[in-house]
């Protein structure tokens, strides 16, 4: 079994460069399916397992995909197939993002229903509501969602009950080729939505208002391949900012875009962290003592849920009582039990977690429960007494490129190893 082994106690210093954003590249690659003419060339694509998964989904739909040197080229000009099978959707829920493009291009889409998720129930009713408003008939059965539209999608007015990132993206993609105008209200305002809209407009779409609560899309007849560079990953940036802060380090996070990180910067500064803008990123200096704060996750520009577990790690080192309230996902506290294994003074009260610090953190063997939890446990290991072993690294690899290598370059005592566990030895003996 692969593990990351961290020996706590090192202050981080130096420079780290962030990759292209996972949550921008996945919808962008799904959008390349809309181009019936010409190739799309996408730059700054991170080598994440999620990117390999979406590339496989596109290939299965009959697109030609090449991925070299952080550049993906997609040729979706041939007739597309319609099915995204469960083996991909199970690995990565964002596979459902091909649905809007498929419906728009072919009038049909068949996507496996996403199964359970470690961070709570994640329905896609808002995506489907949008497709139905545009004239699609949607059927759910035998583990699949089948959507079909006769005579092409029609522009519509759609109000989202919650500013869902995925629903905004999926409906926006579908609307680009619909007949007439679509008005999407109460949409997500994340920077990744703006990045997607920028790509769509380069492809020939007419999307206005991305980044605000209302997006207007005038349908066009055809879209073309385009060239696009993915925005820097604000969550990876935030994770390294937390690494600097928790270790009382001094790190320049290159590529961090301050306007994408307003709520995180505000909370870190409130905790006593020194953050300054430099020409090509943010310098983060951790104080000797951190102050506890209260945090509530919200849709952008509120505090991002994808930074919740990393900030929880930081709060464990802060003096006083802190509270994190999770409002975006219904069950994103699985990592709390793992923090407890590291002697964290922490308790769950409904949708909130209360920390009382600073905790006397101790190294332990812990399992990542989702990708941000993986990062948060490693961050905690950086300041725990003794050795921390983090398992279930498949989660980490979905969202971070060479995380241990980047931390080691900043001075962390960290390695990634393959260790055979006692139960694996038994299995090897049985199979011998
Ligand atoms: C690939 C990607 O970009 N993933 C991000 C995206 O996920 P994702 O797009 O799945 O997140 P959403 O914004 O859609 O989900 C937010 C909340 O809305 C609920 N919901 C969503 C859709 C729907 O049809 N019905 C419904 O009830 C979800 O269950 C969840 O509780 O935004 C999340 C919220 O910022 C981030 O944590 C994820 O990292
Ligand atoms: C929850 C996340 O991603 P996904 O929506 O792909 O599961 C995340 O990036 O933290």
UniProtKB/TrEMBL annotation:
<feature type="binding site">
    <location>
        <position position="306"/>
    </location>
    <ligand>
        <name>UDP-N-acetyl-alpha-D-glucosamine</name>
    </ligand>
</feature>
<dbReference type="Pfam" id="PF00275">
    <property type="entry name" value="EPSP_synthase"/>
</dbReference>
<keyword id="KW-0133">Cell shape</keyword>
<keyword id="KW-0573">Peptidoglycan synthesis</keyword>
<feature type="active site" description="Proton donor">
    <location>
        <position position="117"/>
    </location>
</feature>
<dbReference type="GO" id="GO:0009252">
    <property type="term" value="P:peptidoglycan biosynthetic process"/>
</dbReference>
<keyword id="KW-0963">Cytoplasm</keyword>
<dbReference type="InterPro" id="IPR050068">
    <property type="entry name" value="MurA_subfamily"/>
</dbReference>
<dbReference type="GO" id="GO:0008760">
    <property type="term" value="F:UDP-N-acetylglucosamine 1-carboxyvinyltransferase activity"/>
</dbReference>
<dbReference type="InterPro" id="IPR005750">
    <property type="entry name" value="UDP_GlcNAc_COvinyl_MurA"/>
</dbReference>
<feature type="binding site">
    <location>
        <position position="328"/>
    </location>
    <ligand>
        <name>UDP-N-acetyl-alpha-D-glucosamine</name>
    </ligand>
</feature>
<comment type="pathway">
    <text>Cell wall biogenesis; peptidoglycan biosynthesis.</text>
</comment>
<dbReference type="GO" id="GO:0008360">
    <property type="term" value="P:regulation of cell shape"/>
</dbReference>
<feature type="binding site">
    <location>
        <begin position="122"/>
        <end position="126"/>
    </location>
    <ligand>
        <name>UDP-N-acetyl-alpha-D-glucosamine</name>
    </ligand>
</feature>
<dbReference type="InterPro" id="IPR001986">
    <property type="entry name" value="Enolpyruvate_Tfrase_dom"/>
</dbReference>
<dbReference type="GO" id="GO:0005737">
    <property type="term" value="C:cytoplasm"/>
</dbReference>
<protein>
    <recommendedName>
        <fullName>UDP-N-acetylglucosamine 1-carboxyvinyltransferase</fullName>
        <ecNumber>2.5.1.7</ecNumber>
    </recommendedName>
</protein>
<dbReference type="GO" id="GO:0071555">
    <property type="term" value="P:cell wall organization"/>
</dbReference>
<keyword id="KW-0132">Cell division</keyword>
<dbReference type="GO" id="GO:0019277">
    <property type="term" value="P:UDP-N-acetylgalactosamine biosynthetic process"/>
</dbReference>
<comment type="similarity">
    <text>Belongs to the EPSP synthase family. MurA subfamily.</text>
</comment>
<keyword id="KW-0670">Pyruvate</keyword>
<dbReference type="InterPro" id="IPR036968">
    <property type="entry name" value="Enolpyruvate_Tfrase_sf"/>
</dbReference>
<keyword id="KW-0808">Transferase</keyword>
<feature type="binding site">
    <location>
        <position position="93"/>
    </location>
    <ligand>
        <name>UDP-N-acetyl-alpha-D-glucosamine</name>
    </ligand>
</feature>
<feature type="domain" description="Enolpyruvate transferase">
    <location>
        <begin position="6"/>
        <end position="407"/>
    </location>
</feature>
<keyword id="KW-0961">Cell wall biogenesis/degradation</keyword>
<feature type="modified residue" description="2-(S-cysteinyl)pyruvic acid O-phosphothioketal">
    <location>
        <position position="117"/>
    </location>
</feature>
<dbReference type="GO" id="GO:0051301">
    <property type="term" value="P:cell division"/>
</dbReference>
<feature type="binding site">
    <location>
        <begin position="22"/>
        <end position="23"/>
    </location>
    <ligand>
        <name>phosphoenolpyruvate</name>
    </ligand>
</feature>
<keyword id="KW-0131">Cell cycle</keyword>
<comment type="function">
    <text>Cell wall formation. Adds enolpyruvyl to UDP-N-acetylglucosamine.</text>
</comment>
<dbReference type="InterPro" id="IPR013792">
    <property type="entry name" value="RNA3'P_cycl/enolpyr_Trfase_a/b"/>
</dbReference>
């Amino acid at each position: 079994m692969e593990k990351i082994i961290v020996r706590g106690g090192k202050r981080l210093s130096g420079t780290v460069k962030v990759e292209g954003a996972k949550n921008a590249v996945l919808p962008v690659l799904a959008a390349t399916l809309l181009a019936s003419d010409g190739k799309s060339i996408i730059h700054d694509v991170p080598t994440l397992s999620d990117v390999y998964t979406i590339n496989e989904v596109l290939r299965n739909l009959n697109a030609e995909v090449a991925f070299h040197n952080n550049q993906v080229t997609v040729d979706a000009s041939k007739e597309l197939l319609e099915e995204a099978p469960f083996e991909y959707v199970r690995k990565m829920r964002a596979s459902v993002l091909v649905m809007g493009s498929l419906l728009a291009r072919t009038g049909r889409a068949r996507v496996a229903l996403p199964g359970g998720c470690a961070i709570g129930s994640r329905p896609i009713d808002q995506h489907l509501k949008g497709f139905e408003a545009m004239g699609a008939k949607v059927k759910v059965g035998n583990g699949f969602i089948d959507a079909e539209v006769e005579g092409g999608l029609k522009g519509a007015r759609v109000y989202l009950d919650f500013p869902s990132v995925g629903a905004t993206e999926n409906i926006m993609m579908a609307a680009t080729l619909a007949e007439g105008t679509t008005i999407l209200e109460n949409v997500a305002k994340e920077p990744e939505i703006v990045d997607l809209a920028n790509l769509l407009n380069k492809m020939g779409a007419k999307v206005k208002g991305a980044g605000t609560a209302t997006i207007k899309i005038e349908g066009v007849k055809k879209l073309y391949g385009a060239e696009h560079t993915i925005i820097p990953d604000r969550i990876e940036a935030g994770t390294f900012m937390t690494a600097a802060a928790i270790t009382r380090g001094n790190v320049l996070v290159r590529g961090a875009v301050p306007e994408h990180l307003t709520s995180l910067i505000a909370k870190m500064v409130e905790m006593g962290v020194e953050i300054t803008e430099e020409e090509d990123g943010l310098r983060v200096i951790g104080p000797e003592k951190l102050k506890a704060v209260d945090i509530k996750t919200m849709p952008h520009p509120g505090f991002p849920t994808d930074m919740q577990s990393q900030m929880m790690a930081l709060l464990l080192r802060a003096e006083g009582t802190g509270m994190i309230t999770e409002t975006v996902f219904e069950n994103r506290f699985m990592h709390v039990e793992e923090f407890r294994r590291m002697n964290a003074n922490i308790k769950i009260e409904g949708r909130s977690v209360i920390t009382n610090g600073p905790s006397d953190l101790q190294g332990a063997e812990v399992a990542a429960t989702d990708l941000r939890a993986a990062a948060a446990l490693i961050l905690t290991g950086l300041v725990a007494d003794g050795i921390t072993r983090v398992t279930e690294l498949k989660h980490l690899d979905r969202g971070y490129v060479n995380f241990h290598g980047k931390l080691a370059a900043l001075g962390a005592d960290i390695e990634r190893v393959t260790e055979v566990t006692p139960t694996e030895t038994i299995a090897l003996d049985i199979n011998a």
